[in-house]
Amino acid sequence: MVEKRNPITVEDAIKRVMKYRKTGEIEYIDIKQANGRILASDIIADHDVPAFNRSPYDGYAIKSSDTSNASTDNPVVFRVVGHIGAGSVFQDTVKEKEAVRIMTGAAIPDGADTVIMLEDTETLDNDQVAVKKQMENLQNISLAGEDVKKNTVIVPKGKIINPGIVALLATFGYKNVPVSKKPVIGVIATGSELLEVDEELQDGKIRNSNSYMMIAQIERAGAIAKYFGQFSDQLDTCIEQMKSAMTEVDFLITTGGVSVGDFDLLPDIYKHFQANVLFNKIRMRPGSVTTVAELDGQLLFGLSGNPSACYVGFELFVKPVIDTFVGRNQVGMKKAKATLSVPFTKANPFDRFIRGHYELTGGKVEVSPSGKDKSNMVHSLAEANCFIHLPGGTNGYNKGETVEICLLENV
Amino acid sequence: MVEKRNPITVEDAIKRVMKYRKTGEIEYIDIKQANGRILASDIIADHDVPAFNRSPYDGYAIKSSDTSNASTDNPVVFRVVGHIGAGSVFQDTVKEKEAVRIMTGAAIPDGADTVIMLEDTETLDNDQVAVKKQMENLQNISLAGEDVKKNTVIVPKGKIINPGIVALLATFGYKNVPVSKKPVIGVIATGSELLEVDEELQDGKIRNSNSYMMIAQIERAGAIAKYFGQFSDQLDTCIEQMKSAMTEVDFLITTGGVSVGDFDLLPDIYKHFQANVLFNKIRMRPGSVTTVAELDGQLLFGLSGNPSACYVGFELFVKPVIDTFVGRNQVGMKKAKATLSVPFTKANPFDRFIRGHYELTGGKVEVSPSGKDKSNMVHSLAEANCFIHLPGGTNGYNKGETVEICLLENV
């Protein structure tokens, strides 16, 4: 009973999935936990930066008009009437021939309109300082609002919060930061050949690696993984397990069981649920049997049991849904061009996504496959930081040709 | 009392800091939490992969010698004696003209030495199948150990664990994963101009942004931040606060107070502790007053209160110590070459580290400064994903010239 399936393109598959995307909610977290999260509202400046006219140097705040004749030969003597560090405010007004010793970052006192640097002065006795240089109005003053004007959007929502953005959040008083709630993604493994990670090997069986890989991919993509363990071999039990899992998650991933093999349960489960199967065959390698279904608006991702196909299926179809849920402005993998450092001589009847490793070498982006490209080789996944995308319908690629890569890290 | 300081090079400064590096311990965590941590022991294969001779296809396991005369015109008829899915084992031995229906991933039964694909057969009545093709010994069989041999080092320690590595950990039975313990890094802010993040603005004051930025940088670098709040203005209280903080952390960062300004307390604190000041002046911009001291082998990082200088100081001097603590094989920022997309016309008497944003554009690495390069502009930090490093003693750089960049993300 080999079922006939209708293969569609990768693009079309992504489009069909994205029809059922959801948007998550905002939650507020402490600024100390904000790094790496997605900013859910624009950051708005609650004040000018600087908030006041500020000294960029250590020196003396004076009236520039008092220096109109100052020179090395003709120093002008000022009386030092105050001494303020950053954070302090001079309470008086600076008058003619008066100087306030001022530190970097401190507010310019009223009456003063310039700061003369320490090295352009000479300290005399009796709280007096000699100025040997002409100064201009507003010289050496960081003006209020010079960096940032109040009410400006400083950082637009949808960005991944990094340490620099954290600094801005702190500057503008965001003790609690609006971030996107992470979606919860369920993971269920199928396959009677699977042992759990802590089981001893048995004849004919392998340990379940896909589920843990998925959990890590889900976390890397900025979502929360919920692992439900392995499915029963029994259709009835399976159906119950899946039904229950769906109520606890935003999206559900199953691994394995989507082929047309005699022991593949997923097609029957979808049938039982009367789920809307968006596609069950894609013109791509690996992962051609990747299946996505929708039930009452909830996406059920049926990824292949083959580790490479499973990995690719996640990044191509699940990640964009996560990105949308958290409101990232980059949806799906970031793409770039790279120079192939090995040839791929075979023609590509289908879109191929080859696990690759790119390096920045001498100002150029170079990419090579990460390990032999055998779809059952978990091994080559460890070094992968991108996919090499060879579009379907193309001939082989030579070494040195430019290809598209899809970046795997979220930065 | 402007103190005379001896400037040293960035390289020399890093060397002096690294003399007091420490190595952390190993801890074991659940594989579900392993993503992003540093692998602390080599991953060793506890079995061959495949662990047994395995079928890469859906088909029939047979003896190749039975097909020596098979062709489309002369099909050879086999009796189907079993049917095994992945994870099942055929308990008998395959004899002449016997076939076992086999699924992808299942173990090759004893007696069989090849798998004929479904499409090269024809199913007849009475549990019989016709084979129309000659097969060779071991054709279509994934041999035990073909991917990975038992006892091979699969992934060397020191790597950041990614989803592919998690898959390998699961395959080889690592339910508990050896990872490097994260160092604890204390953060203390100094500066009487500083308000806390949730305080209303006051005349002459700014909110403390450096501490939160540091916390985010510490987390990005893979360590744990412990924030001790702001220092008192009083030397005595300061000394007590710092002494107590040192007992709770592996490394301690203070921000601000390291200049030669009249209100800068750190030099006096180092003196009080009789700490070994490794340097207090570096031939670099920003961050020339960055100070690092050592007390009984513990590093005290005195970063500048200027946000950009603080940021740069952390990445240059604190990050390598974290990388070493966790045993990463990449110590310090990863470097690369990039093409400048704007000119830097001024000469560089000192090493400059300009916050930059690099992009992969048409197969090339292009970099530009992220925002105007004013050292008091927090703003430009938000977009930075690298530093543009202009070495001291160089003239200006033109647009299109190649420069070194230091990458800020740990991937």
Automatic annotation (TrEMBL), chains A, B:
Pathway: Cofactor biosynthesis; molybdopterin biosynthesis. One of its GO terms (biological process) is Mo-molybdopterin cofactor biosynthetic process. Its EC number is 2.10.1.1. InterPro entries: MoaB/Mog-like_dom_sf, MoaB/Mog_dom, MoeA-like, MoeA_C_domain_IV, MoeA_C_domain_IV_sf, MoeA_linker/N, MoeA_linker/N_sf. Residues 186-324 form the MoaB/Mog domain. The keyword ATP-binding does not apply. GO terms for cellular component: cytosol. It comes from the Bacteria. Its cofactor is Mg(2+). GO terms for molecular function: metal ion binding; molybdopterin molybdotransferase activity. It is an enzyme of class 2 (transferase). It catalyses: adenylyl-molybdopterin + molybdate = Mo-molybdopterin + AMP + H(+). Keywords: Magnesium, Metal-binding, Molybdenum, Molybdenum cofactor biosynthesis, Transferase. PANTHER family: GEPHYRIN, MOLYBDOPTERIN BIOSYNTHESIS PROTEIN. NCBIfam families: Glp_gephyrin (NF045515), molyb_syn (TIGR00177). Catalyzes the insertion of molybdate into adenylated molybdopterin with the concomitant release of AMP. Belongs to the MoeA family. This is Molybdopterin molybdenumtransferase.
